[in-house]
From TrEMBL, chain A:
The gene is MED18. The keyword Transmembrane does not apply. This is Mediator of RNA polymerase II transcription subunit 18. InterPro entries: Mediator_Med18 (IPR019095). It comes from Ogataea philodendri. Coiled coil: none annotated. Keywords: Activator, Nucleus, Transcription, Transcription regulation.
Automatic annotation (TrEMBL), chain B:
The lineage of its organism: Eukaryota, Fungi, Dikarya, Ascomycota, Saccharomycotina. GO terms for biological process: regulation of transcription by RNA polymerase II. It is found in: Nucleus. Component of the Mediator complex. Component of the Mediator complex, a coactivator involved in the regulated transcription of nearly all RNA polymerase II-dependent genes. Mediator functions as a bridge to convey information from gene-specific regulatory proteins to the basal RNA polymerase II transcription machinery. Mediator is recruited to promoters by direct interactions with regulatory proteins and serves as a scaffold for the assembly of a functional preinitiation complex with RNA polymerase II and the general transcription factors. InterPro entries: Mediator_Med20. Its main location: nucleus. The gene is MED20. GO terms for cellular component: mediator complex. Keywords: Activator, Nucleus, Transcription, Transcription regulation. Signal peptide: none annotated. This is Mediator of RNA polymerase II transcription subunit 20. Coiled coil: none annotated. Belongs to the Mediator complex subunit 20 family. One of its GO terms (molecular function) is transcription coregulator activity.
Length: 220, 200
């Protein structure tokens, strides 16, 4: 599990941002190619609502992410494809980001990485999940102190990979391994705020609407 | 809906990895991606793939993450799965033994043995012995298939049975089921056998 601190922005002029980030970080951008399949629970989960009993159990979507780029074809229409089993997948479940007035977005991310599977879809099916959507993320990654900066665009499948939004998304994040590691959280927050000040005027880094990052499934 | 059982197996000698099977049919092996094991042999093909995976930002876990797959299931998939029992093996030893005279031509046969005391909720439940026949004839890269595989497998089982007879191992429940008969997989089959053996 990691606790992820993050700030977001978007831009229509990625060239300027990329050059700025190159000079700020002093590094050549590292290519980033991700292919993600969103899984949803097969059966609805509707626990009985009883008075005086607070139900803490939620059901979540699972994001499965692998390294995959522009040459990828749609996987959801080809459930028999050997590509499902020939690669490493990271399963990810996210909580809704923490509420309250905060300088950065804080979200708990639970993950496990599958390094070997004979029939991953069969396993996920037994686990109680089925594929729902897939998308690709492509762009660049920079590292600045503890901060990872990602500049990317999102593609979905429509007879080929199709760009979802002309804008380039910018995500700046710091991962902290322990929930109670307040020192790292404070340091990460400070670094994100410093980066925000550094890039002010070029891009305005800000929080993201927290409900749109909710990983829970609503059955109502 | 029929009951479903999810098993996870963690072995002290397989650092950071978890083998998981559901309903005795499907298996996956999970691990925390960027840990020491990755640095041990960076030229290894699997490790290189894992490095690519991390570099592309496909995983967020960092090296100080300690949560295993089991913890993910119990904490975040509670709407689907609840823990039934946890069996812990302690005070284990590993041996490689060479047994003369078991081979058809009178040569030595090698076995790998692992033993462990199994506890359920702190109560001793049994002594587990894992026996692996180390077949010199099987080359790691040359995976036998079809009939050949069944012959090899049956041969190894017989060798293990003669070892048990020879040294008068206490009688127990000998488990040698495999997950998929047409495609043997060392770790998933091991997990399956542990599941069969540890039915308390």
């Amino acid at each position: 599990m990691v606790q992820q601190l993050s700030l977001y922005s978007s831009t229509l002029a990625p060239e300027v941002v990329l050059i700025t980030l190159e000079s700020l970080t002093g590094m050549v951008p590292q290519p980033m190619e991700q292919h993600t399949v969103v899984m949803r629970p097969k059966f609805p989960f509707k626990p009985e609502q009883k008075a005086g009993k607070i139900n803490q159990i939620e059901s979540y979507r699972i994001r499965m992410t692998r390294h995959g780029g522009a040459s990828d074809s749609e996987l959801l229409s080809n459930l028999q494809s050997p590509r499902w089993n020939n690669c490493i997948w990271t399963l990810q479940i996210v909580d809704i980001p923490a509420a309250g007035k905060r300088p950065v977005l804080t979200q708990n991310i639970y993950e496990t990485t599958i390094v070997k599977a004979d029939d991953i879809l069969g396993y996920m099916d037994e686990l109680g999940y089925m594929p729902e959507k897939e998308y690709w993320v492509r762009g660049s990654r920079f590292y600045y102190n503890d901060v990872v900066i990602e500049v990317f665009q999102v593609y979905h499948w429509n007879d080929g990979q199709e760009l979802l939004d002309k804008q380039h998304q910018i995500k700046c994040l710091v991962n902290v391994a322990q929930l109670n590691d307040l020192e790292s959280v404070a340091r990460g927050t400070k670094q994100l705020e410093a980066l925000k000040a550094e890039l002010a005027g070029l891009v305005e880094l800000d929080l993201y609407e927290r409900t749109s990052l909710d990983g829970r499934v609503s059955w109502n | 809906m029929a009951n479903r059982y999810l098993y996870t197996l963690q072995l002290s000698y397989l650092n950071n990895q978890t083998i998981s099977i559901i309903n005795n049919s499907k298996s996956v092996i999970t691990r925390i991606p960027n840990t020491n094991g990755l640095l041990a042999d960076p030229t290894d093909r699997d490790n290189l793939a894992l490095l690519q995976h991390i570099k592309n930002g496909c995983s967020s876990n960092i090296s100080s993450t300690t949560e295993t797959f089991e913890q993910l299931v119990t904490s975040k998939l509670a709407s689907l799965w609840t823990v039934k029992q946890t069996i812990k093996g302690e005070g284990g030893y590993g041996y490689v033994v060479s047994v003369p005279g078991l081979k058809d031509k009178g040569g030595d046969e090698k076995f790998k043995l692992r033993t462990s005391n199994c506890f359920l909720h702190g109560l001793f439940k049994g002594f587990l012995i894992e026996i692996e026949h180390l077949d010199d004839d099987i080359d790691q890269d040359d995976v036998p298939e079809g009939n050949n595989l069944i012959v090899k497998f049956t041969n190894s089982i017989n060798k293990i049975k003669s070892l048990i007879d020879l040294y008068k191992f206490p009688e127990g429940n000998l488990c040698f089921n495999v997950l998929n008969e047409t495609k043997l997989d060392y770790l998933s089959d091991l997990c399956q056998q542990y599941c069969d053996a540890l039915q308390f």
